Automatic annotation (TrEMBL):
Domain of life: Bacteria
Protein name: 2-isopropylmalate synthase
KW Cytoplasm (keyword) present: yes
Keywords: Amino-acid biosynthesis, Branched-chain amino acid biosynthesis, Cytoplasm, Leucine biosynthesis, Magnesium, Metal-binding, Transferase
Length: 558
């Protein structure tokens, strides 16, 4: 076959020689330290970077959900960034247990301005970076390894020499060999070690060494190998907080972060819903909820996912995809019949079991836990089946359609969805149900009045009086039987020459309260060779009247 794609332009990424790698056997049982970089890496990727108001709204949301470290900007980049950091400090907007982080290149005037921006903050992380990759050394810096290492060490010295400016403040230092995933491992280690030599971290004030997949270039297992390699080879591991900063160029940022944590990372930098350069930073919402759904405390509050989405969409001016993990508008929704059937059964089973453990097929998370309701769990279109329609009727309209009828009513809905090729709303399903079983505008019979009383002196016999219209003509009928339903059915057969047998009858209330309606379901059978079953529904606040209406409904469908 002709290959139209120029594969010769690309090279396979090298594997890491890591004998006895240990990360595949690890389990994540505690959340890493989270650092939000929404206000910096997220912000620098936006068409319109956040203004002060949007930055402030993002900040408030991040603090509210529990981030203890937030990279608040690149203060030397713009007045907006600088002024925002000053505003946070001067207006006392930083809780005592929250640390702000600021990013700077290794350039004297930028480092100086960065220090000026954080004067007076209680807790600060000064984050220095320079790219160390082979490609950037060659084309951006035009320097050899020694030259680029010098940028890092000179930058580290610029930072160290300004630390007296922040005397009395809690200051932690962070270094990123940017483009780490394009950097030879031994060289990345050498540069990090050199920076560490200058900053002289201690166990109680570790250096944060942040190893970014600035561009995600390999499968996540290779990133994990790189992290484990660094973790094993750092000389003063106890003085290091090992941080990762995955991007998502290959669509595996979340996997890369998770495997990196298994490989020894203590900390993860990322953004809400994965906003960030190109395909984005790693998504902390997905990472956190992945932990949550394994029974691990994510140490972040995602209970108002809609609020977080609104904030992210407002601040980033970018929509969140309807299929976004956990959060997207459609991710808790099943349209297809077999999924709906399984969800319907799963929801009932979970209610019955009352064990407190969430296990519903196709729903990895209880939507309630993130502030969603069950309304959208099942939506109906031409791919749907009876289980889904029954779910909508029961949950939205309190109609517990007996199982044998579900198939019949689903054909009514199937005809509508096939005709429209569109989703049918819960209200439309209800309208179709009412028309088919309850109001029956084209039905032959219409019940105008109904009364029943026990025949005096008899415990069993009931006398009924009913007024009906038969194709518009009013008729009064009376008769007796051993109950209202039995007597009324008998009269219908006798007066109108109908041939049917009562087969089954169920009734339930539609809601609680004194004005609660009852829903009655009647099944009648035609005594011919087909033995067809016909169903009728009656709804009324009077529990005697509801089944009578159900008989009329069934007779109309004969
Ligand atoms: C992967 C990341 O996300 S890294 C963060 C990236 N974020 C941003 O760039 C957003 C904010 N940046 C900015 O606003 C600007 O780039 C500024 C204010 C920092 C610098 O602006 P300028 O100096 O006008 O421009 P510019 O960024 O193009 O400067 C590039 C120069 O800095 C050098 N440089 C780039 N990164 C670094 C670094 N980390 N340390 C030292 N020098 C660096 C380049 O080699 C280049 O040098 P040259 O002029 O000798 O060729
Ligand atoms: C500054 C660094 C950490 C960065 O943003 C990246 O490498 O993506």
């Amino acid at each position: 076959m002709l290959n139209r794609m120029p594969i010769h332009k690309y090279r396979a990424y090298a594997q890491v020689d890591l004998p006895k790698r240990s990360w595949p056997d690890k389990v994540i049982d505690t959340a890493p330290i989270w650092c939000s970089v929404d206000l910096r890496d997220g912000n620098q990727a936006l068409v319109d970077p956040m203004d002060g108001a949007r930055k402030r709204r993002m900040w408030d949301a991040l603090v509210k959900m529990g981030f203890k470290q937030v990279e608040v900007g690149f203060p030397s980049a713009s007045d907006t960034d600088f002024n925002f950091v000053r505003q946070l400090i001067e207006e006392n907007l930083i809780p005592d247990d929250v640390t702000i982080q600021v990013l700077t290149q290794a350039r004297e005037h930028l480092v100086q301005r960065t220090f000026e921006s954080v004067l007076g903050a209680k807790n600060v992380i000064i984050h220095l970076y320079n790219s160390t990759s082979e490609l950037q050394r060659r084309v951006v810096f035009q320097q050899d390894q020694a030259g680029v290492k010098k940028i890092a060490t000179e930058g580290a010295e610029m930072v160290r020499d300004r630390l007296p400016m922040l005397a009395g403040q809690n200051v932690q230092l962070q270094y990123s060999p940017e483009s780490f995933t394009g950097t030879e491992l031994d060289y990345a280690l050498e540069v990090c070690e050199a920076v560490m030599d200058i900053w002289a971290p201690v166990v109680d004030n570790q250096i944060i060494l942040n190893l970014p997949s600035t561009v995600e270039m390999s499968t996540p297992n290779i990133y994990a190998d790189q992290i484990e390699w660094m973790h094993r080879n750092f000389t003063r591991r106890d003085r290091i907080c090992l941080s990762v900063h995955p991007h998502n160029d290959r669509g595996t940022g979340v996997a890369a972060a998770e495997l990196a944590v298994m490989a020894g990372a203590d900390r993860v930098e990322g953004t809400l819903f994965g906003n960030g350069e190109r395909t984005g930073n790693v998504d902390i919402v997905t990472l956190g909820l992945n932990l949550f759904t394994q029974g691990v405390d994510p140490k972040l509050d995602f209970s108002d996912i809609n609020g977080l989405m609104e904030t992210a969409e407002y601040c980033n001016q970018l929509p969140i995809h309807p299929r976004h993990p956990y959060a997207g508008e459609l991710v808790h929704t099943a349209f297809s019949g077999s999924h709906q059937d399984a969800i319907n059964k799963g929801m009932k089973a979970i209610k019955a079991a009352n064990s407190g453990v969430w296990e519903v097929p196709y729903l990895p998370i209880d939507p309630h836990d993130i502030g969603r309701d069950y309304e959208a769990v099942i939506r109906v279109n031409s791919q749907s089946g009876k289980g889904g329609i029954a779910y909508v009727l029961e949950n939205d309209h309190h109609i517990r359609l007996p199982k044998e009828w579900q198939a019949q009513f689903s054909q009514v809905i199937q005809r509508l969805t096939d005709a429209s090729s569109q989703e049918i709303s819960s209200q439309e399903i209800w309208n179709a149900f009412e028309k088919e079983y309850v109001t029956q505008p084209e039905g032959r019979f219409n019940l105008v009045n109904f009364e029943s009383r026990r025949v005096p002196g008899s415990n069993q016999v009931v006398e009924v009086n009913a007024v009906l219209t038969d194709n518009g003509t009013e008729k009064t009928i009376t008769g007796q039987g051993n109950g209202p339903v039995n007597a009324f059915s008998h009269m219908m057969r006798k007066e109108f020459g109908l041939k049917f047998k009562l087969k089954d009858y169920v009734e339930h209330t539609r809601s609680v309260g004194s004005d609660a309606e009852a829903a009655a379901y009647i099944e009648i059978k035609v005594p011919d060779e087909t033995g067809t079953s016909i169903f009728g529904v009656g709804i009324d606040t009077d529990i005697t009247l509801a089944p009578i209406k159900a008989v009329v409904s069934a007779c109309n469908r004969l």
